[in-house]
Amino acid sequence: MKLSDVMGASGLSMYAIVALVLFVAAFVAVVLLTFAPGAAARHKRAAELPLEDDANGSASRTAE
Amino acid sequence: MNAASPHLDTFSYDDAIVRKFLWATFIWGLVGMLVGLVIALQLANPWFNFDISWLSFGRLRPLHTNAVIFAFAGNAIFTGAYYSTQRLLKTRMFSDRLSSFHFWGWQAIIVAAAITLPLGFTQAKEYAELEWPIDIAIAVVWVAFAINFFGTIARRRERHIYVAIWFYIASIITVAILHIFNNLSVPAGFLKSYPIYAGVQDAFMQWWYGHNAVAFFLTTPFLGLMYYFLPKAADRPVFSYKLSILHFWTIVFLYIWAGPHHLHYTALPDWASTLGMLFSVMLWMPSWGGMINGLLTLRGAWNKVAEEPVLKFFVVAITAYGMSTFEGPMLSVKSVNSLAHYTDWIIAHVHTGALGWNGLLTFGMIYWLAPRLFQAPLHSKKLAELHFWIASFGILLYVAAIYSAGITQGLMWRAFDETGRLAYPDFVETVMKLMPMYWVRVAGGTLYIIGMLVFGYNILMTWRARPKTYDVPQVSAPRLAKAYVDPHPVPAGGGLWARFSGADWHRRWERLPLLFSVMVVVAVVVASLAEIIPTFLIRSNVPTIASVKPYTPLELAGRDLYIREGCFNCHSQMVRPLRHETERFGEYSKPGEFVYDHPFLWGSRRIGPDLARVGGKFPDLWHVRHFDEPKAVVPNSIMPTYGHLGRNALDFDGIQRKIDAMAMLGVPYGEALTQAPAMAREQARTMAEAIRASGGPDGLGDREVIALIAYMQKLGRDIRTAAPVATGARP
User: Fold this and answer.
1) Less crowded by CB within 10 Å, the N or C end of chain B?
2) What value, to the nearest 5°, has the Cα angle with vertex B192 and ends B187 and B195?
3) pLDDT, position B420
4) B residues 221-250 closer than 8 Å to A (CB)
5) Is A1 touching B (CB cutoff 8 A)?
């Protein structure tokens, strides 16, 4: 008996659906987070990152 | 925070390595494009093959694609990534030694490719042609790069990881996975190997790789560059950071599924090809989201575009990204694909992406970088403008001509006359029609290369104005505190939604590169497994055909010559189940026919006719004459001559090793396991005698050409007993 026979007979098609559900759930979570109320401030700060590196690294930042 | 802080570190960025990669980008770009010009000339007139085996189209075409993808675009990615990563993370690269190893290792690999590909050492898989020792070297250098990169992230002085870095992380991880799995093979000597996969599975694996090479080598790293260098050049933050996050995750989730659209109407199971189409169409959305995000970053700064060549390059690059990512999903729709597949349309599509998106983005980036890296003003803004216009016009000429060529040929192939017969039964007629377009392509490509020379001159002159010693500015930044203090703490209390949307856990993700990387791996691997494993493990996907037999030792040797000469670059071996194809070539191809094909040789472009059913179509002597001088039997043929096959002695003793490797892969050989050379000699002798008896040349029994003819005559013959070939097929 070949591995492919075993796999073919073992009824794994359910796993594809499980994977799909997990995928969609993870993606929806990312989307929700992106639009979550508190996100704007963090995004604004993150978007500025490329612009602040020319000057001294500490120039426009405060300690965390 | 002020300078008196106890945690303030002082350090410098390693720009020497960036300068090295910058030069490599220019030099290899020029080489790769010149090889492209040579092969464009070869298609316009086969005289440019010079009757030299290692300069023929089949050997040079992979050199062109590898050089522009991995050498030009590759070095461009490293240039931009080494520059931006250090600055975004406020730290020097993890190890200067690893950076240097990465640089020299990568260049050595390119040199190895430039030597082995023209000599005919190839795995016959597009963009994965390099043989196993070079593949191992690639893996080693890539891992060194990854260690250096993740080490840098670990030492960063900026808590948040900017979206450009996410794109780099996804690229590094995914390219490693793709490279390793597509190149699993059994060596049959130094510089010769057979993939562990066969036929349909090999095709599936290859285009999972091939498409994602486009995705994770030519798209995601360049998006990372866009998200860093565009805001720099425009001096304003990206239009929407939100959109960039969605852009990233959607691309990572979707891209990896799209590969099967390269195999529509082939012997790939239908479900897989539909899945590939669906995900490709969905990809349109994030791609355009990214394009819009790029273009709108220039909001309120469009006046700068008029005077700043860097921004001009960026704007057209991003527009080209938008055009090719609109076209990609469209081409992945089966009905569109049935017209476009195997034609020049695909070539036009990739050149919109490569010349427009990758090329122009690289030029814009380097024009921006050069004054900063060489610490001298750009030699001439005017020349940069000139470069922009020459390159843009060159792209237009190239793409417009090759689109027309593709659609023309596609329509000619499928045209029937009023009596229901093929309107253009003679394949070469559909090739002749393209010649004017091929010359326009030569003109367009030449313009692009002239632009490249103008670019090189400009950068060189900028470099010459550099200071005696480069100033290495000292940068200071506070070290990251061990414990993270959230600058936007989530207020206590509140319901589940408040806690979720406060997103403390997600912010932690973004800060933890390891976890982040694991997420990317999971997204990529799960998708890959769900799509690929079924074809490997579920038998019903590849029904076997009892009459399909392994290649005889001589045929196998001939197949390896077919691979060495790169015949698959112009000839497909896959008749699609479309009426005009079965009329023209014969019975459509079945998955079960390819179970002994390590590697698969379906091809992706028909510059010459399909060969899946060529066995028995012509006598051996026809093939002898055709290889020697194609024009002798097909007057308008643009095929290079293969006279050397009739002069080179066939290595009979080397065949045993090939058979042994095939047997290791499970190909059922019996007698051939011990007798391969003798069996091959016997078959060659019989064939050579028959050729001589029919009035052909003498003494072919120990020449390479006899093995290749044996292979040609085997193609499609196995199923002829099982399923009769459709009548009406004409030579």
Assistant:
1) C
2) 60
3) 93
4) 227-228, 231-232, 235-238, 241-242, 245-246, 249-250
5) no
Distance from CA of B139 to the nearest CA of A (A): 29
**H or E element in which residue B459 lies:** helix B435-464
pLDDT in tens, B632-686: 999 999 999 999 999 999 999 999 999 999 999 989 998 999 999 999 999 999 9
At residue B521, the pLDDT reads 79
Residues of B in contact with A30 (CB under 8 A): 245-246, 249, 506
- Whether residue B537 and residue A23 make contact (CB cut-off 8 A), yes or no, is no
Q: Do A32 and B237 touch (CB under 8 A)?
A: no
* Contact residues for B470 (Cβ-Cβ < 8 A; gap 6+): B15, B16, B375
Contact B357, B320 (CB under 8 A): yes
DSSP of A1-60, one letter per residue?
A: --HHHHHHHS--HHHHHHHHHHHHHHHHHHHHHHTSTTHHHHHHHHHTGGGGSSS-TTTT
Q: Looking at the predicted structure, is the pLDDT value of residue B492 above 90? A: no
pLDDT tens digits for range B551-577: 999 999 999 999 999 999 999 999 999
Give me the phi and psi of B407, to 5 degrees please. -70, -40
- Is the Cβ–Cβ distance between B117 and B66 less than 8 Å? yes
Tokens of residue B622, six digits: 């026809």
CB contact under 8 A, B539 and A4: yes
The residue whose two tokens read 């360049």 is B222
Look-up of token digits 């290899």: B28
- Residue B616 Ramachandran class (φ > 0 left, ψ -120 to 50 alpha, else beta): left
What is the maximum span of chain B, computed from C-alpha positions, in angstroms?
Answer: 96
Closest among B249, B211, B248, B254 to B227, alpha carbons compared: B248
- Confidence band (pLDDT; 50, 70, 90) for B489? low
Residue B537, amino acid? L
What's this model's pTM, rounded to 2 decimal places? 0.91
3-state secondary structure of B185: strand
Task: Please answer whether residues B304 and B270 qualify as being in contact, where contact means their C-beta atoms are separated by less than 8 angstroms.
Answer: no
Q: What distance in Å separates the CA atoms of residue B515 and residue B510, rounded to the nearest whole number?
A: 8
Specify the DSSP class assigned to residue B568. Answer: G
**How close A2 comes to chain B (CA, Å)?**
9
Whether B640 contacts B626, CB under 8 Å: no
Q: What was the pLDDT predicted at A40?
A: 84
Inter-chain contact B241–A35, Cβ cutoff 8 Å?
A: no
User: CB count, 10 Å around CB of B378?
Assistant: 20
Residue B371's pLDDT band (cuts 50, 70, 90): very high
Among A4, A44, A56, select the one facing B475 at the smallest CB separation.
A56
Binning pLDDT at 50, 70 and 90, where does residue B486 land? low
Question: What are the tokens at A51?
Answer: 């612009």
Handedness of CA B505, B510, B515, B518 (dihedral sign): positive
